[in-house]
Amino acid sequence: MQMITPEEYLRLERASEEKHEYIDGQMFAMAGANRKHRKITTNIHFALLAKEAESGCVTDNSDTRLFIPGTRRYTYPDVVMTCGEEQRHQDGVLDTLLNPTLIVEVLSPSTEAYDRGKKFLAYTSIPSFAEYLLVSQDEVLVEQRVRLAPQEWRQRFFRSLDDSVTLVNGIVLSLASIYAGIKFDQ
Q1: Vertex 88, ends 167 and 10: CA angle to 5°?
Q2: E strands, 61-141, where?
Q3: What is the CATH number that goes with domain 33-178?
């Protein structure tokens, strides 16, 4: 496979109708999400949007390209939230987020190990990144990781529709709202 520069990736990606991640000089097409994944992502996005005014944060969806400086990767998280002034890519086209506070990934069988492992480790190189939510689409389960120090994270699990996750910015997300309209296989 031919290696390309980040500049070539951005040029190709901006002209593409599909989304691609950029990792180690290569572009990888992103697979489409199933209905359950899309519904959970939308539920989270709208719940966070409803809290923007009181939180002073800005929420965006999976069309937001994110640059990871420590690994020089580009990726598209399911939901991102930035608290404070958003910073966009320095190449003159302001379409790539640089400073997310919260990143949410809805887990898919094909990406779960990557989202929990290498992708999370890459995200930790983003100085503003303070919180990670991993949301299962196969059961009621939300994992929250909160940065306590540069190399220290606290991990909590929420498993009931009666539970709520309190984010570091004070926003409270109920699992009932995250999983609204979702039916699980028995």
Answers
A1: 120
A2: 65-68, 73-75, 79-83, 96-97, 102-106, 131-135
A3: 3.90.1570.10
The whole-angstrom separation of Cα 181 and Cα 59 is: 22
Question: How far is it, in rounded angstroms, from Cα 62 to Cα 162?
Answer: 27
Measured distance CA(146)–CA(129) in Å, rounded? 9
Tell me the pLDDT of the chain (186 aa) as tens digits: 689 999 999 999 999 999 999 998 999 988 778 999 999 999 999 999 999 988 889 999 999 999 998 888 999 999 999 999 889 887 878 889 999 999 999 999 888 999 999 999 999 999 999 999 999 999 999 999 999 998 899 999 999 999 999 999 999 999 999 999 999 876
60's enclosing H/E stretch is strand 57-60
